[in-house]
Design brief:
This protein is α/β, with parallel strands linked by helices. The chain is built from 11 helices and 9 strands. It has a single domain, classed as Rossmann fold (3-Layer(aba) Sandwich). The chain is globular.
Length: 351
């Protein structure tokens, strides 16, 4: 069994390394010259036909090691940080201490721009598929570009994200076993099919809301409709539930087996984070408080989603580090939890 497992792992890892042919066929291209806002930061624009219409151009921000250059002959491991629905490629450097955390590390931090309702997915588009295909863009196009042009390692990557990006981190890691060596979610919308029992928001409500803020996008274009029990009282009416299930880290939890995982979420009540950079976050913060239905609505929903993912991982005997804490949907807590999970993320990629 051990030999078989090793062979499967080797095949998965080998399949992830881009061949010269795959790179040559990559439809995504870097447009124009790189920008250098400062010595630690590289920013560039990618054009991809897998993205939609006027939005085929997306920014990518990198934090690079001190000895990095475009002429380098070596590679560096990568940490992917995914933004939430209200964010973009600049969110993590603006809201967290990531620049300080990696200043003396041999790691490239990858911060890609998607959009406010990307869900880090290839959209259903009423059954027609096609653009925008954010998962295809990130996994099959941006990743090879980083390896070919920016000296990213082909086999050492970690991923973390907040809110919608927390869904993205766990979703991409689960759907592409072997691509990431660890994954972390901070206030992540990690259970799209979550059903509240107290009359508050359900999982699909988050997708519906993201469609409203995403230039009036019809939310059904993303994954379709989840069917029973959200859209109909008929248990046989499942509509596009299979698409929602593929996008759900809870349903796809088996794909997370074998890598270090970190999941954090708040109870919706505000207060002092009890932490100041660069202090190590106090383990006592993870009090696993009761979910407060009168707290902030978004984090109240995220709390239920987070617990559902953790319960699924526990039942499958998949190890996960969990921090359920007092807090709202805010950078005050996401920055703290990034710092708390940072050693795990770095250890997994040898940085």
């Amino acid at each position: 069994m051990r030999l078989l497992a090793a062979m499967i792992t080797a095949l998965l890892t080998a399949s992830l390394a881009p061949s010269a042919q795959a790179l040559a066929e990559n439809p995504a291209t870097v447009v124009g010259d790189d920008q250098r806002p400062d010595a630690q930061t590289v920013e560039f624009t990618v054009h991809s036909p897998s993205l939609d219409g006027l939005f085929q151009w997306k920014k990518v921000r990198l934090l690079v090691p001190k000895d990095w250059s475009k002429d380098a002959t070596r590679t560096w491991p990568t940490l992917w940080l995914l933004h939430g629905a209200s964010g973009d490629h600049q969110s993590w450097t603006g809201g967290s201490h990531i620049k300080q955390l990696v200043a003396d590390r041999g790691v490239i931090v990858v911060m890609p721009e998607t959009n406010a309702c990307s869900s880090y997915s290839d959209w259903w588009n009423y059954g027609n598929g096609g653009a925008p295909a954010f998962e295809t863009y990130l996994v099959d196009q941006l990743r090879p570009l980083l390896e070919q042009k920016y000296h990213a390692s082909t086999d050492r990557a970690a991923v973390a994200g907040l809110s919608m990006g927390g869904l993205g981190a766990m979703k991409l890691a689960a759907n592409h076993p072997g691509m990431f060596k660890s994954a972390a979610s901070y206030s992540g919308a990690v259970s799209p099919l979550f059903q509240a029992t107290d009359g508050t928001l359900n999982g699909p409500d988050a997708v519906k809301a993201s469609g409203l803020v995403c230039l009036g996008t019809d939310w059904k274009k993303i994954w379709g409709e989840p069917g029973y029990p959200f859209d109909t009282t008929n248990p046989q009416d499942v509509r596009q539930r299979a698409i929602w299930q593929r996008a759900s880290p809870v349903v796809q939890a088996e794909g997370l087996r074998g890598i270090p995982l970190y999941v954090s979420f708040g109870d919706g009540t505000s207060g002092d984070a009890g932490w100041q950079y660069p202090e190590p976050p106090n383990p006592a913060r993870c009090t696993n408080p009761s979910n407060n239905p009168k707290g902030e609505a978004v984090e109240h929903l995220v709390y239920g989603m987070g617990h559902q993912l953790v319960d699924k991982l526990d039942s499958a005997h998949i190890p996960v580090t969990v921090c359920a804490h007092a807090g709202t949907h805010a950078w005050l807590y996401w920055d703290r939890e990034l710092n708390a999970s940072f050693p795990m993320l770095m250890s997994s990629i040898g940085a």
